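Sequence only, no structure available. Ideas?
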Amino acid sequence: VHGDESSGSSTPQMSTIVSIDFGTSRSALAFSHGGEVKVFTPTSAVFRRFDSRKIETALLMDQKSNKVLKFGIPAKHSFVDEDGKDLLFEWFKMHLADLQDSSDNKIIKDQSGRPRKLLDVLSGAFLFMSDEIMNELDKQGLRTAKQETFWVITIPVIWSAAANSMMRKACVAGGLIAHELAQNIRFVNEAEAATHEVIRADGFQAKKGAKFAVLDCGGGTADMTFLELVNLSPVRIREISRPIGAPAGATRIDRNFTQVLETIFGRRFEKIKQTPAFADLMLTFEDAKISFQEGDSGGKVFRFSQVVEDYNARNPKSEYPLSEFASDVQRAMQNNPRFAQIGVRASSLTIPMAMFREWFDSIILEIIELLNEAFENSNTRQVSTVYLVGGFSQSEYVFSKIKAALSRKGIQLIRPDKPDVAIVMGAVRAQLAEAMSVRCAQFNYGIITSTEFDESKNHDKSKMRKIEGKDHIDIFDLFVRQGSAVPNDYETEKKPYIPLTESQKIVSFKLAIIDSESLPNLVYADDRRISIHSEVKVPVNTRLPFNDRTVYCQLRFRGVPEIVLTNSEGYSLNEANGLIIKAGGW
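Reply:
I predicted one. Tokens follow.
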């Protein structure tokens, strides 16, 4: 594409809105048809013992067809009941945390070490959840098709462009949207989504002009957004600083616990994890995490008699005598000083409160460091209240620690009712009645383009390339600068892009970001700071006069940027036949 240096359509209105809060350890669904927001918990994905509005992010997949067989705790139980015949995936969202390439080839492994494409697992999860909500809507007489539904998907603020791109691809493969430029979908960062629930909660009493923050503590990340209430009726808020986040989530506590068990059981542990009793044990551990408080003494007791019994029933040739459990625990304590305080009695294991506290504190310390960093910013120093949401926020210990850290800064901490579903409910509300009037641009956003070499503009000759005898240079064409105020539904100016040659049949657009607060006027396309969000290829009508082949590009911001393409006559190319998308997602 040749950028001319001299120089959209609105969101579709759909009666049914569905949000998916796709979590590391647990996920949630909510919907609205006519205004009221309801959380939906698929009965096929819950377990009678575990009363929750959210479902475990666990997926059982047929190893031959890749078909999703079950989701949630039933997926875990079926996996063990069938002796691991099919593939079980847990915590697979974490593979997106450091994803740098949005290609379809990222491979992950199931509980038994069998490989599958990450995209297949993600799309399977979206397929299951979207099928379940469609069936529920049908039961309620609200029959609708997936592509006639508006979808709101929540994402962590710290994710890379590649991770966001992968999620959009998974939504296409899962049938939620027809293609990666479809307009019936929106991605919202988790803390911003929760904000739309917080500002409508009974405990929200901010006055006009008040500055506040929302902190989302989940299974994989902690995210934070900073806001000012600019109007009361209707409610309008604006971001006063860029949202921030850290990989500080509750699943690290689970990993600490399973590392203890792996040390105790050794090579048997892989098969022990495949017992129904072990799935029940982890539910008990989850209850212990939520109920843990600052003043607790003694320890948390976990019983293993049923776990060992289940293991022996499935492995009669390598029976594990229950009498060996205590000695194995003592051996683990001797070999690892970190486990020295663990208690054992017959078939029961006691995790001392000091160890539990250490597991929590390592994560809470990172969250508090995030808070300290946040309030060093001159724009956030007037924040008077922080609202705490997310699954991890249900822990009394987490709440008390963060409350104490904020009180030393003179900041109040409030935890609204139902903090675990504030994100998924807020995501629907964000689409029903958008309250965010202005955001701070998270990155520098632009298009990779080619322009004619111009020595007067200090173009680097070493980066020059010839195209049909003319010297060109590839640059980052900036649309929006990082940190700048971006009104909701803001559309940048349209920039014209002209084919480089008469014979060119495809015009290619690469939407790119740069995470840098200091950006020079000239940035070359090979700058290592550049991340590519997507590549969109538009067929060129070579029958038109050359000057009529211009494609106009602009960015639209609805939480995250979307690319909008039009031709020289103003016709939208976003829905055009023949559009080729190499790596979509914004």
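The chain is about 25% helix and 30% strand.
Hope that gets you unstuck.
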